[in-house]
# Entry
Amino acid sequence: MTNRFSGKVAIVTGSSNGIGRATAILFAKEGAKVTITGRNAQRLEETKQEILKAGIPEDHVLAIATDLATEEGQDELINETIKKFGKLDILVNNAGAAFMDDKRTSGVDQDISVFDKIMQINLRSIVTLTQKAKKYLVETKGEIVNVSSIGAGPQAQPKFIHYALSKASLDQYTRSAAIDLIQYGVRVNAVSPGVVATGFGEAMGMTREMDQKYFNFLESHKDCIPCGSIGKPIDIANIIAFLADRKLSSYIIGQSIVADGGSTLVMGMQSHNMMDILKS
Ligand code: NDP
# Structure
């Protein structure tokens, strides 16, 4: 256990599950005081218990069960954090989700209500939460790490078109906010995960069995994941910690680090042997 975040205060959104949970636990183990948050109070408590199990003092953790899609929820998150810990050094904008419409439509016909719902949590809430956190982060010359996705492109994502739009917009937000905020000494960066085993599928209406079947397929197809394994939440948490650690990453501004086991580097045509095609 190192103490690289000792004396720092971090908010990790979406820490009642998946990548956010792993990040909050890692930050707490490395010395940070952490505000954990999500709508599901029971899962949030599980995150808290895991942090306490690691020997972290209870007064280093603040759990706030709230809906980040609302500005009231965001105000509560910032205000309660400042009230308890007195400052904010690190904001991890991780909460996010993909939704389908009732008919599980994909492509351009996907219902516009899906667009609104996805944009609300994956983009708008990050824009407004960043506005609300700005003055505190300027005071500490802090760090923001956004959690994007390889779904942002440049490859097309017709099945999850609105989700992909939200993450592509987030990438441009990361770049633009980074240049705006670096004048105050605040850094903004992002991580773009590939497929990671979390509650993401379940939140989208998939069962655990469906998730597992999908992961097994991807792992056994090198043209999907060249490294041969699905990402773990800690793989992404480690990158978030790197980007939040100024000693290690101070010269990285407005970038997104891709962590996808090689998925975005393979092209469909490479899955077929040219010589076999020519022989047939
Ligand atoms: P999980 O479903 O495991 O975690 C998502 C978290 O976001 C949960 O803690 C959930 O909390 C929270 N959240 C969702 N909606 C809201 C809301 N309205 N208000 C407050 N909290 C909310 O998924 P992941 O860990 O995978 O997702 C984390 C991030 O990673 C997301 O931004 C996702 O887009 C991104 N990502 C994930 C990938 C993957 O393959 N898993 C790939 C690429 C990117 P609760 O349900 O308690 O509200």
